[in-house]
Amino acid sequence: MTMKELFKKVETYNEIAEMMGTDKAKLVLTDIDDKFGFAKVEGSFKNYKEFTKFVKDEYFKDVAENLIKSKDWEIDGEITFQWGWNKENNSRYGVELAAI
Prior knowledge:
By secondary structure, the chain is an alpha+beta fold. 38% of the residues lie in helices and 33% in strands.
């Protein structure tokens, strides 16, 4: 699914959490190092607008477009893509839920 669809799910959950007086959720983006399998937290976001602003400000255009437009996102899942003028660069990112 797209990142926009994931955020819609989080927003729906947060509406219910607010009614029940429990913890709300956010999505956390991680950059996963292919060499060692380590994940570095890039940012956490309460909504799609925060996510897209961060991604556009922090990443090369090719990477930002892949992160925003990918249809392969899933909660607690990873995506991998190649980018650059001859697709020589590999990037692997994950997204997971966290409590606010």
